[in-house]
Fold this sequence. Notes:
single chain, 770 residues, alpha/beta, 8-stranded mixed sheet, 8-stranded parallel sheet, 45% helix, binds magnesium ion, EC 2.7.3.9, metal ion binding, phosphotransferase system
Amino acid sequence: MSANRFAGPDGPPATRDKDAGSRVLLKRIREIMAEPMAPQQRLDRIVAQIAQSMVAEVCSVYALRADGVLELYATVGLNPKAVHQSQLRLGQGLVGTIAASSRPLNLAEAQKHPAFEYLPETGEELYNSFLGVPILRAGRTLGVLVVQNEAHRAYGDDEGEAMETVAMVIGEMIATGDLRSLSSAGVELDLAKPVTHHGQPLSEGIGLGHVVLHEPRVVVTAMFNDDTQAELERLAAALSSLRLTIDDMLSRGDVAFEGEHRDVLETYRMFAHDKGWVQRMEEAIRNGLTAEAGVEKVQSDMRARLSTVTDPYLRERMSDFDDLANRLLRQLISGEPSHGAKSLPEDAIIVARHMGAAELLDYPRDRLRGLVLEEGAPTSHVVIVARAMNIPVAGGAKGVVAMSDSGDAIIVDGLSGHVHLRPQPDVEAAYAEKVRFRARRQEEYRTLRDRPSVTADGHPVSLLMNAGLLVDLPQVDQSGAAGIGLFRTELQFMIAATFPRAEAQERLYRSVLDAAAGRPVTFRTLDIGGDKVLPYFRNAPDEENPALGWRAMRLALDRPGLLRTQVRALLKAASGRELRLMLPMVTELHEIDQARALIMREVKHLSRFGHGLPLTLRIGAMLEVPSLLFDLDGLMEKVDFVSIGSNDLFQFMYAADRGNSRVADRFETLSPTFLRALKSIADAAARHETPLTLCGEIAGRPLEALALAALGITTLSMSPAAIGPVKAAILKTDMAALRAAIADPLENGSTGADIRNIIREYAEAHAIAL
Ligand code: PEP
Ligand code: MG
């Protein structure tokens, strides 16, 4: 797919004549900016000039105040008495909608728009057509600029562009404090009040710290160029320097640029050469902007479009362009493509509209306390990486970028999704206590790291970790995991722009085995489909029920080329060591035979060509589809090991979508029906002496982990952060006593809540923290 598709303009490039119109407007605005005059007069002159150039009857500027209200600051055409009187909340009316979404609105019949709201003091009922653009500065919405006409007029793209450019100039006036003298006491433009955003919890943990605005690190102050040719040359030089930097990072072979970081850099290299993107920036410079203002202008257009795109692949690609534009801006302004760690506070909480995975990896991990995103979903690349790095994340915090400033105090609660900006002292104190408590706990867990994981009555319970990215690997040592019980290979595929090449796969797998240093590692073959989307994999038809669709083994067996390449990379990476391969979403036993035949063909192929092979090869299956529960003996006979995928097994047994919190949390994971199913698996594994693990989320919750161990599931794989708490619980538990306590309720009509209570009481009596 050509990258031009994302960078190119929506329609055909503007014609020379239209450009001339916008050049003249810019020239006039520039003259107004250069003349000495009072701020109100300057704003009034600007709106008058815009109205004249665009043959509009109305032109108005609304500025966003600290209390989230948009106030009319200047107008020509509306009732002049409404200036500094007329107000709209963020999200209210057309103007509020533009500010809240940071997107322009171009309407021939404004009054028919569902968001239209009539403000009697302005007299705007006369006007039918409406063009409004957000006043943006460094990614932050500071207000809205509007033109209106009586006639049902369609404003052209070129007029929208001209308005956006002038809006940048007004943004500069607001940001530099030029308009401060115009605001009345108590409703200033500087946004300094406490605000709580109710976002979505995306990665667990609590972060207390200070805002680092991801996007406004670079502030463009020089807007207009004096010499177009010189600015075009500056842009070309910055672009070539940026490309060289990326090439250099890629060729350095530095471990910091391996794995997922490398995949993203390769995408950047492709985009840095994108002709459509470069042409649009050049066009903006030809229209009178400086190189940096041109880059920012194209970036703003891209952001506006990003907010309308729902396709996850396009969104990731457009946010890659956004990252790249930031790098280019830094290159133009400071001659340095990456931000300096020096300016980062010790307790940085990154606040961004959206963000690429590579940009997060650019920040020094030891200073990061959290991440707040206006967008972001559980499957966004940056969220996957943040979770692997154990950074608390809240997403969906609309408006947070506009309301925050670098250095503001901020709290991100990755458990509830709440974000407290400039928190009140009591809120801050409560959270600080929570963080101290968690830190004390972490310290205790660290002291347990090298203690063997054995119950108080001497039963070993092996604790392994789940992983999937290169950034997970330091945790193998730090968490005290006995190995990697689940390596989700699809994560490398999910954060890449295209299918990772065989060599990249092999490199990652080898690094994983190296980091594990002899501890067992179970690689799960690609588990794509369902909620694990590879946006570039377009062969998949749209499915009504993707969780029940063409995924994991089904897809792997129908498209054996994918699995074959992966298996070959795994076999090569594990040459001379043990290789444990696990098949996801097995539904019928014959799928294991088919996969085994494919794997053995690859073994044969490699050995024919003289490649070193793994010392031992074990093939196991995930048990996560209920059909297998009815042939457990057959399953245990067929494989070298089994791992229970309790996330999916529970989802399918209870017909409850794991990603839908309305139903996912409705049913009790400790309900006797589910536990009896787990026990029948444990009993079958014991009968056949087939090693059994469980690698779903419940393994990482101490109370559930105790229940699992009591059922006889004594190898558990979990997120690395859960190993300490689970081990602490295991060490204090007399397994025989707990087993006896739940044996009867398990069989005799108790509820999941009863079983949970029994374990909770046991834990309280034995000072076990749950
Ligand atoms: C599971 O389903 O429990 C599991 C471990 O796999 P995933 O969460 O990756 O689907
Ligand atoms: Mg699963």
